[in-house]
């Protein structure tokens, strides 16, 4: 199925997501298809969600009212989950987008993925790993600068100290090795996406090749055909 013909359902947990970078969400989703359902959940009677009001009007998002019926209980999560499941069974939707930093949506995401749906998540750095990893792709909204571009980290960023990241990259390069330790960068990128919600932009880089170069534990080169290749310097 062509990407631009896929249908997308967008569900926003306004109680647990910032409104400031929402244009970034819309821009990213345009890569996957057409937004056919747009809903945002929260208690719109109070002033706490005022930052979302202009966003709702600008992007034609339907606000779904949920009163704070009991202190400490989140009715928004339950209402949103019910609506997502209704859409799953009643509508022809290819991609689901969940905007939240709440791990309570992890079982919902897992259910969608098990049904063959692609799930794109957006949230803050506080989002638990279990929720992030359950999504097909997850992007942290803090990584975006005000103009929507990807922030470039300074050389002091402790990428080499991120043992989980290094292991993930090395395993992907090894899995795609086509001889003498060299792996096609495109294949490595596909491998990383297939095994989890990996996205180099969450580390501040627009291109995967830039992430490999910044870590300085890999060799990156281009062949005469213009293809990029990557190699673990240990091999």
Summarize, please.
This protein is α/β, with parallel strands linked by helices and 235 residues long.
Strand content: 15-25%
How far the N terminus sits from the C terminus, by CA atoms, comes to 39 Å
Identify low-pLDDT runs: 145-156
Estimated radius of gyration: 19 Å
Helix content: 25-40%
Using DSSP, what is the number of strands?
Answer: 9
Number of helical elements:
8
The neighbouring-strand order within the major sheet is: 3-2-1-4-5-6
Largest sheet data: 6 strands, parallel
Q: Helix-strand pattern, N to C?
A: EHEHEHEHEHEHEHHEE
Q: Tell me the name of the CATH homologous superfamily of the largest domain.
A: 5'-nuclease
Give the averaged pLDDT, no decimals.
85
CATH topology of the largest domain: Rossmann fold
* CATH hierarchy, class of the largest domain: Alpha Beta
| Bulk shape | elongated
Structural class from helices and strands? alpha/beta
Number of domains: 2
Using the 3D structure, state the CATH architecture of the largest domain: 3-Layer(aba) Sandwich
């Amino acid at each position: 199925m062509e990407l631009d013909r896929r249908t997308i359902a967008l569900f926003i947990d306004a109680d647990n997501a910032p409104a400031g970078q929402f244009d970034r969400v819309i821009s990213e989703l345009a890569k996957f298809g057409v937004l056919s359902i747009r809903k945002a959940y929260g208690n719109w009677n109070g002033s706490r969600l005022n930052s979302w009001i202009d966003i709702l009007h600008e992007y034609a998002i339907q606000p779904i009212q949920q009163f704070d019926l009991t202190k400490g209980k989140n009715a928004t999560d339950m209402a949103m989950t019910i609506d997502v499941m209704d859409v799953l069974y009643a509508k022809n939707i290819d991609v689901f987008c969940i905007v939240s930093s709440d791990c309570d949506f992890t079982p919902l995401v897992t259910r969608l993925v098990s049904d063959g749906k692609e799930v794109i998540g957006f949230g803050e750095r506080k989002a638990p790993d279990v929720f992030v990893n359950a999504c097909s792709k997850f992007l942290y909204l803090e990584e975006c600068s005000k103009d929507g571009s990807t922030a470039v980290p300074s050389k002091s960023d402790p990428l080499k100290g991120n043992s989980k990241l290094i292991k993930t990259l090395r395993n992907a390069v090894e899995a795609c090795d086509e001889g003498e330790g060299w792996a096609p960068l495109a294949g490595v990128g596909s491998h990383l996406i297939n095994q989890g919600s990996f996205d180099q932009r969450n580390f501040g880089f627009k291109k995967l090749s830039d992430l490999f170069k910044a870590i300085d534990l890999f060799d990156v080169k281009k062949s005469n055909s213009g293809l990029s290749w990557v190699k673990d310097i240990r091999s």
